[in-house]
């Protein structure tokens, strides 16, 4: 078995469906197995997907295990030479996994590998490469020096933003959204630390790989990461879990620091968490009491790029949901240029989703079309003609 793919799901069945569809293509001809550990979703994820993906092993937990524990459950059963931890709110190109495996095979010292994660506007996600959050690195990030001097090797280390995006480079922290691990490395350093319920476990694992004598790498192959569809980052629970993870990591790896160094760091984490909670609380209270006038948000527009046989399905969906939409009937010869030929027809001040028919355009086509996209108000959408579902970063329309 070459690779075991593990996905932890929580209430994002349609995003997960798309992720599994992309994996089905990316894993063709690669000896593989796929595990989905469902953390007690309430949206019928397992029932919906089990009959559509019979090649996938579904584990339906009776309660929320958390990210680390759910992954560990599947890692214990994994038979692959490599283990890929993958978020459900992603999709991969058809060649992405093969290129990653070839790289790992050629770099035996590599314990883990991350990739170039794209946001829905085609911009590169900074979380694709990170440095270890040492006390000094974390300080530069929290006080804003990281953002102000991104090319500085000292101040910009949190995101390692001084590194090239276009060539393989060694990094320190691999994102848990796409984390390819050598199974023998996991056997040596151990699995994910279950003290982390969610957030921080990828930093801890990456640090332990480095301590274990392995290298962590970034490879410039692209995936899409919707970034957070399975979590609610405006919730009080998110703030609590996120900053608690920071404290766990600090206590675990920097407990040797003197009291006078560790105390300010602990205080800084508590202060940041308190400020985030207060801002959230004040914002919600102000809006509920009507202190801020709510400006009506402009409805997005949609440009459907679809095959002739699916044109009527796209029109029907747009009509049923009241979408402001235009339609372009595409053929195989249009796959290479994607939406680039239509940019001059799109509004410059309105969000436009370019909706790709996935029966005509490959996931790799979509990623290539959007990488380096100059129009940040033009975002990725996909249409699956088999289930008549449109997916964007904000919504699932049927």
Short synopsis of the structure:
Residues 4-150 form the Glycosyltransferase 2-like domain. With 398 residues, the chain is an alpha/beta fold. It has helices at 13-26, 45-50, 67-75, 96-106, 135-142, 145-148, 183-189, 201-211, 236-253, 259-288, 311-320, 363-370; strands spanning 3-9, 32-38, 56-60, 82-86, 90-92, 110-118, 169-171, 178-182, 215-225, 301-306, 324-329, 352-357, 378-384, 389-391, 396-397.
Can you give a write-up of this model?
This protein has 398 residues and is of the alpha/beta class. It is globular. It is built from twelve helices and 15 strands. It has three domains: 3-225, Spore Coat Polysaccharide Biosynthesis Protein SpsA, Chain A (Alpha-Beta Complex), CATH 3.90.550.10; 236-288; 301-397, Rossmann fold, CATH 3.40.50. Strands 1, 2, 3, 4, 5, 6, 7, 8 and 9 form a nine-stranded mixed sheet that branches. The chain has a six-stranded mixed sheet with strand order 11-10-12-13-14-15, covered by helices on one side. The chain has helices at 13-26, 45-50, 67-75, 96-106, 135-142, 145-148, 183-189, 201-211, 236-253, 259-288, 311-320, 363-370, and strands at residues 3-9, 32-38, 56-60, 82-86, 90-92, 110-118, 169-171, 178-182, 215-225, 301-306, 324-329, 352-357, 378-384, 389-391, 396-397. It is 34% helix and 21% strand. This is Glycosyl transferase family 2. GO terms for molecular function: transferase activity. Residues 4-150 form the Glycosyltransferase 2-like domain. Keywords: Transferase. Pfam families: Glycos_transf_2.
């Amino acid at each position: 078995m070459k690779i075991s793919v593990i996905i932890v799901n929580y209430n994002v069945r349609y995003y997960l469906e798309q992720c599994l569809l992309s994996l089905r293509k990316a894993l063709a001809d690669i000896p593989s197995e796929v595990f989905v550990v469902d953390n007690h979703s309430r949206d019928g994820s397992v029932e919906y997907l089990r009959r559509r993906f019979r090649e996938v092993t579904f584990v339906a937990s009776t309660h929320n295990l958390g990210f680390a524990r759910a992954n560990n459950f599947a890692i214990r059963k994994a038979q692959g030479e490599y283990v890929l931890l993958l978020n459900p709110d992603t999709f991969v190109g058809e060649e992405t996994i093969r290129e990653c495996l070839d790289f790992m095979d050629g770099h035996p010292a590599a314990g883990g590998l991350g990739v170039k994660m794209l946001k829905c506007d085609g911009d590169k996600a900074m979380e694709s490469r990170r440095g270890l959050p040492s006390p000094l690195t974390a300080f530069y990030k929290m006080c804003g020096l990281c953002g102000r001097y991104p090319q500085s090797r000292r101040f910009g280390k949190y995101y390692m933003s001084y590194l090239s995006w276009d060539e393989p480079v060694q990094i320190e922290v691999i994102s848990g959204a796409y984390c390819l691990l050598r199974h023998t490395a996991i056997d040596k350093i151990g699995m994910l630390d279950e003290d982390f319920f969610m957030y921080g476990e990828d930093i801890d694992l990456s640090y332990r790989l480095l301590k274990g004598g392995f290298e962590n790498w970034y490879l410039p192959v692209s995936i899409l990461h919707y970034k957070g569809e399975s979590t609610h980052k405006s919730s009080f629970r998110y703030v609590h879990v996120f900053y608690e993870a920071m404290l766990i990591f600090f206590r675990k790896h920097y407990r040797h620091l003197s009291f006078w160094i560790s105390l300010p760091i602990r205080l800084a984490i508590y202060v940041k968490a308190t400020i985030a909670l207060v801002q959230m609380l004040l914002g919600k209270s102000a809006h509920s009491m009507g202190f801020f006038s709510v400006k009506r948000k402009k409805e997005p527009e949609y440009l459907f790029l679809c095959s002739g046989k699916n044109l009527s399905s796209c029109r029907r969906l747009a009509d049923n949901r009241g979408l402001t939409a235009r339609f372009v009937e595409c053929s195989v010869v249009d796959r290479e240029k994607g939406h680039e030929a239509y940019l001059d027809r799109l509004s410059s001040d309105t969000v436009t989703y370019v909706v790709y028919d996935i029966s005509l355009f490959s996931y790799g086509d979509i990623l290539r079309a959007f990488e380096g996209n100059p129009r940040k108000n033009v975002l990725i959408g996909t249409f699956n003609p088999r289930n008549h579902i449109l997916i964007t970063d904000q919504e699932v329309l049927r």
